[in-house]
Specification:
The chain is of the alpha+beta class. Helices cover 32% and strands 13% of the residues. The protein has 14 helices and twelve strands. The strands form three sheets. Strands 1, 2, 3, 4, 10, 11 and 12 form a seven-stranded antiparallel beta sheet that branches. The longest helix has 16 residues.
Length: 397
Amino acid sequence: MSSTQPRDAPAREMYVDPRFRSAADRFFERFQRRGDGGGAVAAYLHGEKVLDVWAGWRAKDTRWTHDTVTLCFSTGKGVASTVVHRLADRGLVDYDQPVATYWPEFAAAGKERITVRELMSHRAGLHNVREVAPTQKVLLDYRAFADALAAARPDPRRFQGPGYHAVTYGNLVAELAARVTGKDFTTLLKEEVSDPLGAEELWFHVPQESRVRIARVFPTVKPGPMPWSTTGRILSGLPGLRAIAEAGMAEGFDELARSPRAHDAVMPGWNGVFSAPALARMYAAIANDGVLDGNRYLSSERIAQLSETQTRRRDYVLGIRPHWRLGFHPAWLRVERMPRRSVGHYGFGGSGAWADPETGLSLAFVSNRLGNRLQPIADGRMSAIGGAALEAARAAG
C-alpha cells in the first residue's frame, strides 16, 4: 500500500507473505472456473498483513477485483458483537445484567431476568424468526422487528441449552447497543469498529455509492425441489427439524438474499456486506491482544473474556455443541490441533472470519459462491484455507 493511500482504502495489489504461500495456493485452487464464482482471503499475523488475495468472478461477466464486497450472512454476528464488547470495555454494558436494564420493553413475556451474557450465547430462547417476523415487511422494518422481539415469549428449551438465533441475534444485539448509547446501529458500527480500525467495508446498511461493488451471490437459495416458503412451513411441523426451520428459514429469505432491498435494512444476523481485508483487520485487533497499529482497541481483560466458553451444552437448533463464546464460536479448521482460544463466526454459504490469540493470527474468507454443487449451506473452503494459514502461523512462531 502506498504512503498516500488512505488506511481504509482497499489495496490495489495482492500480497502474499512467503510463509503463507500454502494458504494462498489453497485459495487459488478453489477459483479455477466461472462456476466457482469469486472470493477473497486476507490475514494478519501479530497485527501485520500477511495475506491479501482475490480471484474469480463477482458476476457472470465481471472479474472479482480489489474492491469487491459480498454478502456474508452470519459472519456479521461477530462484527455486531464487537460493537457490544467495545461498549462493555467502557463500562456501558455489563454482561451479567438483565437485557431489560438497558432495554426496558424486553422484560415482557417473562424475559426480565435474561442477561446480556445469555443473549450473546444464544440462550435467550428467541430463535424463532418465523414467529417474530412472519412476513418480509416485518423482517425489513428494523423498528417493527425490535418491538416484536421485545414482546416475544422465550422458548423454554433455553433452560436446557443454547438455541442458535440464526436471524434474530443481530437485531437483538443491535437494539441493545442502540438503547445503551442512544445512537442508531449504523452510526455505532462506524464509530466503534470501522473508523478506529480503518476497516470501512463493514456494512449492514450499504452506502448507495458502494453498491456497484457488491458481488452477485449464487446459486439461488433453495433447500430442495419445493419453494422456500413451502419447505419452511413443512419443516417447521417436523419435530426433528422444527427448530432449524424456525431459526433459519425466515419468510422470503431466499428472495432477499439476492435482492437490493437487503442492503437497505439493518439485520446484523445475516445481511452484512464485507470485504475480506476489513474483516481480517477487525479480528487482527482481537488476535493481537486488543492492539492494532499501536493503538489499543480492546483491553487485555476483554480479549481473555471473549475466548471463554459460555456453554458446552448441545444446541437445540443446530444439534451440536458449538461451545458458544460471547457472540462468537471457535474457528473450525482442517488441522490436527484446533485453536482452542479462537473466536470468530462463519456464515451461510461458506464465508467467515476468526482470530486466534495463541498465534496472533486473524483470517477472513469471503465468497459469492454459496456452498458447493450439492448444497448451499457451506463447504470446506474456509476450513482448508484457514487450516493452512494456522499451520503457517504456528511454524512462524
